[in-house]
Amino acid sequence: MNTNDKFLSDVKKAIKFDRAKNGGNYDGKRACEEIAHLLERYCPDVKTLSRQIGDFWLNSFIFLSADIKNEPSEKNIEKLQAFHAFLSDGDDSLLEHLSKDDWENLRDFVDDEAENLDLTSLQRMMALILEHGAL
pLDDT below 50 — which residues of the chain? Predict the structure, then answer.
């Protein structure tokens, strides 16, 4: 099992755990907030950046959902997996789930954190951003 598979497994566990922990009463907002924190735990080398991206995911895709009580949707899980792949040098095929706007936001987040990132991570992230037309 690779890191991306493990991350997805833990996302699904967080969803199940929220339901089990609360007597069968699932709260999508609460579960998604925990899942966003999971992104931070999986990417400790870029913790501030992963926090910004997790907050972006929550504010742009979860909190604006017409059906927040049932989030995260499969589409939003795929989006989060793509963010995880971006942060962790994961499976590049997952990056197809990111839109032009997502890439532009990633560019801005990386620009804000550039001085705190190690050079290898910064170069890899900027190369991906450039490859996806957001520079």
Answer: none
